[in-house]
Specification:
The protein is an alpha+beta fold and about 250 residues long. The chain contains 8 helices and 12 strands.
Length: about 250
Amino acid sequence: ATPPLRVSYPTSPSRPTSVQPVLAALRCCPFFNGWSQTQLAALSLVGSLRSFGSGQIVMAEGANTDEVIVVVRGRLRAVRRADKGREVTLEIFREGTVCIDTLFSSGRLSHDLVASETSLLLFLPRESLLSQIRTNPDAALSLAKDFERRLGGARSMAAGLALADVETRLKDVLLRLAQEEGELVPGGTLIRKSPTQQELGTMIGACRETVSRIVADFARKGLVRLAGRKLTLAPEFLGSDLPQEPSLAVS
């Protein structure tokens, strides 16, 4: 079960107990770094925290929502489904990120949002968040940079599916994960919560068995080490593609 959020300030008449966990969740998200206490307090009054189990659909394709999601703990997958149960993972929203798929959309959600693991999510009314962003140029610039990053990722995915073989596509995904959430450790770069092999398959358009075979081949060559959900990529695997200080992007 997801442990409760802890806050370090006392309750006061001007800060109701009900908003304290929401305020703490906002402070945990890098996107809100540098926001004023007034802005955070305003959002904490309208936000709500909800928990979801692994595999649970948070928002279904076709949903028309006026809320934006902040991933406090866990992770979400944006999933498109086809006939006969086939699916593709379009994107993963990690802990501490903002899922902005519904921030500007006036239409319906074009994919499912699914909890990849037990997740604690913060829901913020879209208009309340936008009203605060309009007065915060740094936040608006952060959104623009993130849209650029996501567009680049979408182009890379499209090119990979069209031009690259399965092994190359899997390597590209692992390199991107290392760049976005990797930790430099002795012997390589650690991804503490790597996607399951089934999830990796849906990210590259391959079945789980194919992913398992390729990962096993990487392991035999000493390029990766897998221990549960922890995946370590050796320097030989990474080559020159990994920056010295991996960063966590806001989604």
